[in-house]
Amino acid sequence: MTDAPSEAPARDYRGTVFLPKTEFPMRGDLPKREPGWLARWEAMGLRDKLRAQSAGREKFVLHDGPPYANGNLHIGHALNKILKDVINRAAQMSGRDADYVPGWDCHGLPIEWKIEEQYRAKGRDKDAVPILDFRAECRDYATHWLGVQSEEFRRLGVLGDWAGRYATMDFSSEAAIAGEIGKFLMNGSLYRGLRPVMWSPVEKTALAEAEIEYHDHVSPTLWARFRLKSAGAEDLVGASVVIWTTTPWTIPGNRAVAYGPEIDYALVHVEGVAEGSALVSGEFLLVALPLLPQFEKDAGLGAHSVKRLLKGAELEGAISAHPLAGWDGAKGGYGFAVPLLPGDFVTTEAGTGFVHIAPGHGEDDFALGKANGLPVPETVGDDGTFTLQAPGFTGQHVFKAHDAVYAACEATGTLVAKSKLTHSYPHSWRSKKPVIFRATPQWFIAMDDANAIREKSMAALGKTHFVPDIGRNRIGGMVAVRPDWCISRQRAWGVPIPVFVAKQSGEPLRDPAVMERIIAAFRAEGADAWYQPGAAQRFLGADRDAEHFEQVMDIVDVWFESGSTHAFVLTPERGLPFPADLYLEGSDQHRGWFHSSLLESVGSRGVAPFKAILTHGFVLDEQGRKMSKSLGNVVAPQDVVKEYGADILRLWVMNTDVTEDQRIGKEILKQQAELYRRIRNTLRWLLGNLHGFSEEEIVPHAELPELERWVLYRLSELDTRLREAQQSHDWSGVYPDLHAFCATDLSAFYFDVRKDTLYCDAPESLRRRAARTVIDQLHRCLTVWLAPVLVSTAEEAWLARFPNDADSVHLQTWPIIPPEWKFGRLATKWNEIRQYRRLVTAEIEDLRRVGTIGSSLQAAVTIALKADEPANVLTAEQWAEVLIVSQVSFAAPGELVGQVAVAPGQKCDRCWRVLPEVGLSPAHPGLCRRCEAVVG
């Protein structure tokens, strides 16, 4: 008996399948690879090539708001500079000439404060150090940190003119800033005046609104009597007007009391008092009627009667005594009369309906005092202690004086009550200490003189494009009500206000020749020239005697400096036109750089320095909390780059809605790394399936299968999305849409459908060539569109395809999308097809879960489509491709959506489809006809 013949062993067809092939690695390994790309771009002179390539194009200018050269970068810096870089790169790739000049703010109190801290640590006295030596130390400090920050920004992939960066402490910048001050001097808007400004007793200087932050603060409160000495009505004489204040230390500066002319006041007769109350039975008090119930509680008022009601207007002409009049400690210092004056700012929201007026310590107080000829005593010195003009309190610090004021009022019988109040109070954002309003001689720029800066600024804002648009209202509301701009600071490190004041007349000297000499000296020697011996006579010239002039030694507000940066950056010498296309900073800059830039430019040029303003939010931790060292939730950009790479940080920036506050932390960064992995895998798949691709394979658009034309249509939609964002500066959702395209439209659908074609069809087949034609376009579009964000990854993906040493994805422009790609009706049809696919896929998954089939290719599907449904145009073979099943048949239209069954036939050893034709070939019994033809 002979053995039965054995079956022929199954052949291995793996070598005949066209699997993806690429050297583009799966892992980005960004922290190690990114420095190499930075070095490559530096070596090839990428920026110079871009400038040469784009010569003659329309300019795009994003003017850089200067960060402060003081310490390492924080995550907010990273958000800001990355967003700017993405926008600049996108503008360049859209066909503009987008050069970017980074800049730094180098003068001002924070640096000066750091040097003073170093002095204090060494026991040195700053005032004993020659000013030029002190300024040199400040310059060295700023230079060091400018260098550190520059390297940190470059590590984030920010492309710009780093060699030609600007800094406010450059000699040319200091000269330009002096020139800008000179413009306001010459046009009459600059004046010296006495008025209250926000003053930091710790830092001994005036502060701008942008240098203020608000924190909860516990303030002592005071209710005090102002006894009426005379009044129009006889029954009011001898009564006491009661005021309430949260700043008892301002009482020595009191010179009037304000009332509301239309407010109803009660003349109250005190008939009983609570235990411990300072009120006296039998006395008469004046309090606003709506506030009387609260006053009863605050002051311990018991039984009482309202003798009559009166409108505030009846108090016109009334005179009271100062609450400290007759106090022995003052030695007669408060014996003057205190008038009652109408004030439209008096309300009945809190207090007593009366406001004590200290003209040296409040905007409303000062304005009311000025309108009525009140004196403005300088009761407080620059260190926050009382001067000789506050008799009885000289030398005491204002923030510690409330007990002394209470005691003085108690001694004169004018103390009604005292308490404490927790409320929001202005603090210096540098020292974190509370500030005061203090009237001092300062230099101001008038908002409403003949130059009409306020009016012109409001008109300019109306022409500005804002992203988001709410920014228009924020900055507009501030400009509409802001007082004149105080630009003087009593410090040493900065650009001096280069003005001479005639001692005889008190008028500033307005001589263009003098100003030109100053500017020329600053340009050659820096602003230090102002402090050199003999500087005054040098600048005044031979025809004037320096002895007859005061040389102003205040420096200019750093917000004026940064607000004037357009004057030395947007210049013909740099090839950057004025005004800039875009200013971009955090939302806090509505009251900061945007604000000062607007006022400075409008005041010196009559127009805004920007066409558009984009604001981003602040960076919070994952729980939405502000970052702080004490909470341990600070995310440093340097640490993110070290662990994940700059491309991940850049992706995080563009995956957020930058107009809102953003969150970042470990989990969020892990999510961004996962998003990056998907994008990288998309690029890798494209590259792998383009192995050996040549132009001879390209299929004309008209001959492409509809699926391929749908993909190109989606590319046209994304192209429109990116170009609209570039024009509007609104990038919200753009790169999330691009990621969704990669993950959903491509990886989960198109790639899934076309894998069989790419791996198993013959190289010359129309279907495979068409797929590779589209994949070629996908690679070109995606790498260029991703390049502004994933600067290193896009370069790697580009050079993996076009390995030319002189080439770079960053030298490309966005692809021009042919009109034939924009066939919108494909969207509706393929959306419906994909909906059918999802329904059938769900049924297939149900069979896989119960073990009826193991793979979708083991399934045969019967579908029912109505004749008028767009999806009906697909053939059975095309439906099998889309559903990734082996066989599809059609049923009559009805309720049936997709009936799934086990496919009849055998599995092809090469493509794995289950078909009845497998096994019929004598030469290749394990293959289907398609695969047999390819192998054969």
UniProtKB/TrEMBL annotation:
Q: What protein name does the entry list?
A: Isoleucine--tRNA ligase
Q: Which residues form the Methionyl/Valyl/Leucyl/Isoleucyl-tRNA synthetase anticodon-binding domain?
A: 708-862
Motif 'HIGH' region is found at 67-77
Q: What is known of its domains?
A: IleRS has two distinct active sites: one for aminoacylation and one for editing. The misactivated valine is translocated from the active site to the editing site, which sterically excludes the correctly activated isoleucine. The single editing site contains two valyl binding pockets, one specific for each substrate (Val-AMP or Val-tRNA(Ile)).
- Give the highest taxon in the source lineage: Bacteria
What are the Zinc finger FPG/IleRS-type domain coordinates in residue numbering? 905-933
Reaction catalysed by this chain?
A: tRNA(Ile) + L-isoleucine + ATP = L-isoleucyl-tRNA(Ile) + AMP + diphosphate
Known EC number: 6.1.1.5
Q: Where in the cell is it found?
A: Cytoplasm
Record motif 'KMSKS' region, residues: 626-630
Look up the coiled coil feature and give its residue ranges.
none
| Residues binding L-isoleucyl-5'-AMP | 585
Q: Which family does the UniProt entry place this protein in?
A: Belongs to the class-I aminoacyl-tRNA synthetase family. IleS type 1 subfamily.
Recorded GO molecular functions are: isoleucine-tRNA ligase activity
